[in-house]
Amino acid sequence: MRGALVGGSVNGTELSDPKLHPFWAKAEELGVLIFIHPQGTPELEASGRLKGSGGLANVIGNPLETTIALSHLIFEGTLDRFPGLKICGAHAGGYLPSYPDRMDAMCANRPDQCPVALKKKPSEYLKQIYIDSLIFTPEGLRHLIAEIGVSQIVIGTDYPFPWTTTEVDDILNFPGLNDAERIAMLGGTAAKLLGINS
């Protein structure tokens, strides 16, 4: 097995919970990729906040679930405890790439809200996480590259769901990338993470 897919939580338990440390330790030891894909946000759906027009359980709920899962792994020290983990967050990492400075500001301005002593600023852990490119627009991709870096992005399509047909073209046509960066995003980085000869 070269990797595993997990939801953003397990029956209400955050992925950072100490009882899941043996899972993360084994994943790190084996060097396998763990892909975090949301399974919904039942607590919001139960409240009715995501009902109505627009498919909000998916449009808002799924990226939020990825954001929450990755944020807990950062703020609870899981990524410090297991620095060799290979984690990829679905849906462009949720909202996390849009708010890295807010994470840093919270710990700087409200240290009472960040009781776990981290080895670096929260935003710096984004360089430890991989995300997919399922962002839909060239501007979205530009933002991901600026915040996360080409080396941390793998192509995302959400196949077999018909979300997008332009992800490959968006990467191929993105200005300023060299061929090596395009190859990395289109499969080279994923092959490396999965231990597949590309």
Kindly describe this structure.
The chain has 198 residues and is of the alpha/beta class. It has two domains: 120 residues, Metal-dependent hydrolases (TIM Barrel), CATH 3.20.20.140; 66 residues, no CATH class. It contains ten helices and seven strands. The strands form two sheets. The chain has a five-stranded parallel beta sheet with strand order 1-4-5-6-7. A two-stranded antiparallel sheet has the order 2-3. The mean pLDDT is 94.
Domain count: the total is 2
Radius of gyration: 17 Å
User: H/E series, N to C?
Assistant: EEEHEHHHHEHHEHEHH
What is the CATH superfamily of the largest domain?
Answer: Metal-dependent hydrolases
- Strands of the widest sheet, in order across it, are 1-4-5-6-7
The shape is: globular
Structural class: alpha/beta
Give the beta-strand count.
7
Helix content: 40-55%
Largest sheet, in brief, is: 5 strands, parallel
**What is the mean pLDDT?**
94
What is the rounded distance between the termini?
A: 17 Å
Could you tell me the CATH topology label of the largest domain.
TIM Barrel
- Beta-strand content: 5-15%
Q: Treating each run of at least 4 consecutive H or I residues as one helix, how many helices?
A: 10
CATH class of the largest domain: Alpha Beta
**CATH architecture verdict of the largest domain:** Alpha-Beta Barrel
